[in-house]
Amino acid sequence: MKILIHLDIEMAKNKMSLKELSQNIGISMTNLSLLKNGKVKAIRFSTLEAICKELKCQPGDILEYVTDDKDTNGVTDEE
Hints:
Elements: E1 2-5, H1 7-13, H2 18-25, H3 29-36, H4 45-55, H5 59-62, E2 63-66
Antiparallel strand pairs: 1-2
């Protein structure tokens, strides 16, 4: 199981820099950078809510679940 973070894509859609997002939602640039680069193990709902509110998006636009057992054709090992 892997969760991919697409924060950079949503920021680009809104033409917003990491610094600007950080200032607007009150989260440090360091913590946002770690989140953007997928280096975190958890995210607070309040942080996710603030990001979604500022970027006018849904949590699913930022987070994506992918399974480890899929190959490049999308066929699982169990099939």
